[in-house]
Design goal:
The chain has about 190 residues and is an alpha+beta fold. About 40% of the residues lie in helices and about 30% in strands. It is built from 4 helices and 8 strands. It has helices spanning about 1-40, 130-140, 145-150, 170-185; strands at about 45-55, 60-70, 80-85, 90-95, 110, 115-120, 155-160, 165. The strands form 2 sheets. Strands 3, 4, 5, 7 and 8 form a 5-stranded antiparallel beta sheet that branches. Helix 2 (about 130-140) crosses helix 4 (about 170-185). The longest helix has about 40 residues, at about 1-40. The protein is elongated and about 90 Å long. The N and C termini lie far apart (about 95 Å). The model has no long low-confidence stretch (mean pLDDT about 80).
């Protein structure tokens, strides 16, 4: 009886070893493919926030601007073809046009570690506040939706491969849009 157990036990160990080897081989191949794909993947860090631009000199003028920046963190070149804004609840998309003088051109190809920056004046040459333009669109949505839309606004860049890279939600941006929403509510 004891000898029969050891014969069966050896067979069990053999089958378990075959299964273990198969699973280990599959896992190794899966990990190798993931690492290879990750090395060639597009990776961009994006941030967007309102800032004050101060020029040096006698006048020392200050201009309120909104800055959007993208840095290529990957190993392969990345072509950024457009800049956009999105609010998910409810869905709203808008494309940003060229920034102020000195902003990076569109489309632009970034090599590893290169950064592109776009600046937009808060007060446009037509003397309108572009935060107010967003707020006016959101105000048309009705009560809870306009506040949700304003709180979920995010900027992103779109690459030539169609990948979208989002900036983190920016509290300063939300604050400016919500201020404009409140101002619109007071005028109605």
């Amino acid at each position: 009886m004891i000898l029969q157990f050891f014969d069966d036990f050896g067979g069990i160990l053999e089958v378990a070893g075959i299964w273990f080897t198969g699973i280990a081989t599959f896992t190794a191949a899966y990990v190798a493919l993931r690492v290879a794909n990750r090395a060639n993947r597009q990776t961009i860090s994006v941030w967007a926030r309102p800032m004050i631009e101060v020029t040096r000199g006698v006048s020392g003028s200050k201009v309120d601007v909104f800055v959007l920046s993208a840095t290529n963190l990957g190993l392969r070149p990345v072509t950024i073809r457009s800049l956009a804004i999105r609010s998910r609840l409810p869905r709203y998309d808008a494309i940003l046009m060229e920034g102020m003088a000195g902003s990076s051109p569109l489309p632009i190809t970034l090599q590893d570690g290169e950064t592109a920056t776009w600046r937009f004046q808060e007060i446009t040459p037509e003397s309108t506040n572009w935060y107010r333009d967003l707020a006016e669109h959101f105000a048309e949505l009705g009560s809870p939706w306009k506040w949700l839309a304003a709180r979920n606004v995010r900027f992103f860049v779109v690459t030539s491969l169609g990948n979208e890279f989002f900036a983190p939600k920016e509290r300063g941006l939300r604050k400016k849009i919500l201020e404009q929403l409140a101002a619109i509510g007071e005028t109605k």
